[in-house]
Amino acid sequence: MASSTAPLPADLSSLEDGLSAESGKVQVDGTAAESFIAEKRIGERIKHLRLKKSMGLVELGRHTGLSASFLSQLETGRVVPTLRNLARIAMVFSKDLSYFFDPEPRTLFRVHRRTERVRLPQTGVDDPTYFFESLGYQVPDRQLDPYFAEFLPGKEGRMPRSHQHEGCEFLYLLSGTLDVRHGGTTHRIEPGDAIYFDANTIHSYACVGKIPATAVIVTLQHPLLAQAANGPRMGSMNGRSRAVPAAILPVSASAKKSSPQMQ
Q: Please, which residues have CB within 8 angstroms of residue 185's CB and are 6 or more apart in sequence?
């Protein structure tokens, strides 16, 4: 169980303006204290911990010696907790007292507007067979790379360029018809079909028919892919490195200024 005696964060000093000492007692400026508590969303943090443990107010009250009514008011911000009460609650959830005052971690959320994406051609060829747009270029240190790809109808005498890369690849066909060659086998893919395959095996795409084929492609490099069969499955995502396929490379955050290399 975590100790509640660790030093408080420096930002608690902002509460000192609302405190004054008189006759050995601490006087609290209620307005300043309530403002501070509201800013830190302490009540919400307590409720989050409680619900995460599937614990009711009455049960939490038994562990802390506080009434369920008081805890309810505390969670909704109607009362201001003392540090002693917060310490009791922190100990129940094996948290340090500073947990309630540390800045909340930012969750990852990025919007990639269609109008802001960059359309890039297949490189390494004079006549590209497809174009692609990164759907994750604004995400730093991403664990997977999603793309929107448009495959152009084939031309007589033009062969699709094969490639391979570490990890695995997922493709969901949105429209058109696509022949995906994986190793020595060619698979005909129709709208709504999805494929998931080992990208270490040489593969290529070829649009079939007279209309372009569009797809969402996700690549993921897995550092444990080459381990023995009794190792972790390829589908897990605990690796931090990402796929860098020869055909579709990730676009950096400065995608509008630089283009990824492609084969």
A: none
Domain boundaries, the chain: 10-100, 106-263
Instruction: Check if the beta carbon of residue 153 is closer than 8 Å to that of residue 212.
Output: yes
Query: DSSP H helical segments within the chain, as ranges?
Result: 30-40, 42-52, 57-64, 68-75, 83-92
The pTM for the full model equals 0.51
Question: DSSP letters of 185-249?
Answer: EEEEE-TT-EEEEETTS-EEEEEESSS-EEEEEEEE--TTTTS-TTS--TT----------SS-P
pLDDT in tens, 138-176: 887 788 899 999 999 988 877 888 888 889 999 999 999
The verdict on domain 10-100 having CATH code 1.10.10.10 is no
For 69-118, what is each residue's pLDDT tens digit? Answer: 999 999 888 888 888 888 899 999 988 888 887 776 667 788 889 888 88
Q: Which CATH superfamily is domain 106-263 in?
A: Jelly Rolls (2.60.120.10)
